[in-house]
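Appendix B, record 7
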Amino acid sequence: MSLNSPAPAGLSLQPIFHPTKPIPAEKTAAEELARLTDGTARASAKPRTKGFLIALASRKWSPAAIRAARSAEAEDWMWLRLADDGSGEIIASDGSGLFAGARLLAHRLSTTAREKLEAGLLIQRSFTMNRPIWDGSFAQYWRTNRNFSPEHYAATLAESGFTHIEVNSLQASFPYEDSVPGEYYSQFYNYCPGFNHFIDTPLTSGIWPTHYLDANLERLKNLAALGRKYGLKPSVCLYEPRSLPERFFQRYPTLRGARIDHPFRSRLPRYTMAQDHPVTRHHYRLAIQALMRAVPDLDAMSIWTNDSGGGFEHSASLYIGRNGGPYMIREWRSHEKIAEAAGKSMGAFLRNLREAAAETNPDFKLSLRIEPFKVEHDHLKSELGRGIHWEGPSLLARGYSLPYSHPKYKDQAGVAGGMFHCQMDEREKPELARERAQGVEPILTYAPGPVWNQEPLIGIPWPRMVHARLTQLKDIGTRMISAMGGLTNTAAAPYWPNPIAIRAAQFTPEVPIADVLATEANRLAGAKHGPAVAKAWELFEDAVTHQPIVPLFCGFGWCWQRTWDRPIVPDIEAIPAAERHYYERHGCFQHNNPGVNDLGKDVLFELITRDAADKMVPRFDRKLLPRITKAEKHVAAALKRATGDARATAVLADLRDRLRAYRHWATTLRTVVAWCSGVYGYLASQSPAQRQKHETFLQTAIDLELDNARGFLEHFENSPTEFMVVSATGENTFIYGKNLGDHVRRKIRLMEKYRHHKPRIDPHILWRPADGQPWPDGFPTS
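Structure tokens (predicted):
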């Protein structure tokens, strides 16, 4: 989706008018339509009989639009009318609909819809809320990605039918958080920064530097202002209740609440405030009121918790186990009583925030991610409603276990909310009715792009899957949805069809997705070569649907584990620590994390079992990689036919480069599971012949990865296409930097040097002392 899309031929409008005192979205939409049609945009104090009008419905510039909306009992809508003489109007119930209407009118309405424009066309949104959440490139851990245009991104959100924009984002590339040498945990405060990173209250004054808070708050306000320009309502996604540093509790020891850190990843215990204490409640009330003063139109807040520096007291899923301060429940109570008390306390926490925010914005929406609270589920849900929602991937959510599996590999469960969640269990619809009968309106999540699915790639097309997910959500009556990870770097992926599929599901769900994609392909590449582009998308997506899920590595774990640039050899620790430092320094590694020497493990998680690895390797070889090759051949042939056609060549070359990047990514992913299959198989072997078989298998996998790494290096350094997110400020655990090429060269040299060592995993890594200090003599290490 290009912000500078060419103006369509044959669309001529009379002068375009917006109100004299417009909201930003009215002026933006008028100027955009004028740009797309080579027209002019002017201000007017009242509607003109001659001219093309753009205004909110509340201004009552078009009685016909109001009548049509009332007749249809429409809640969120836009009205498009275009007469033969170029007069008409775009009227919408909200600001984002105005910009979307301008883009739709200019070049994305079907022939049938255009025929209805003379009389006026009422378009109702499928979803009253469609917001990005955990927005990777715009707000969260990819916010330093190079060649990112916030302006382009906001415009793409509005055009695609989004209603909100996520604005809580740190100004710096890292969070201000107390830490100690050797621990990783402080970096998790990058995720969804909470109140304490933007504002303080008299209770927390002086804990964070004022210049840090001011810079972050200014960025938040600027992002909200950018959203308003396109009619997008500001929203935030926070980890709360978030921990405070130990120096705070030295000052106020009776406010100490739950320990919430991950004891394997941290060396500094971290605590939240006791959430039931009246001082804590007043602090949070002041905090959200301060946030509302900064952004009075803040419309929605999503609370994530029990992870990444946040957590609720006495809830069962805290990493450290149930714990908390003295005010919620006395000792020696049953698990059920503790769960009940925890659920009620969470409800009180949420109501306190909602009521305080509603003083500024009565329509303020507060939601809580529901999956962490399997034990407290029923007690927590009984506390919701009246502007407080729960958020999750399914109405059947009770913890993280859900009845959704990979569409091609039924043994791979746990796809709910991800890219492969494109089917709907028949129990969902009646469950939604039960939720509403209890006064609760759930917010259901979907995956629009690569965050948590194909990191760090961007622009990988799977429009049919995302369209299927949204269509199914609409069909069961869902009103509010959240897009996990957002749309990433839209300016760097100008021909990506996923936003087109989202727009179609929101505004024109009656149009088959094949027709939507065919129309878009023709618009981008022209009628002659458009069918080849549409076919390329189809072949590319067919490959993607056969991609096995490799836990952690398909998402943020790819960068965590430094998967592009770490050498994959039979004995990882045969490489001296000094030679591994270049990739371990930014990895999510601790000195005693099994992930240091075992690709199938991370802390105490068993990510890839031998059985799973043995199944996945042939799936890569027989299902995924051949389909990528087929798509590459189609695109290569189409590029030859398009010689001399600059428009078509640009689109097809972009697809060529993304297919190649995806092949390199998928091949390295295959190497990870092949390592687990070969090394685990070797270590379990009972005979020399079995060991030789697994060694041969590993060496073949290493040959493949070396060729793949050389190819990726050439592609990374020479491709004109930005096929992955790359940091403009330097690498960190969540994003690679511009020096990735140098790191891949090191990887190749180390793989060539250490490839022939026998497979080995030190099983005693868990018990290693920190910082290289040996245990006293006589103490066991296993």
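Remarks on this record: The mean pLDDT is 95. Residues 461 and 537 are 6 Å apart (CA to CA).
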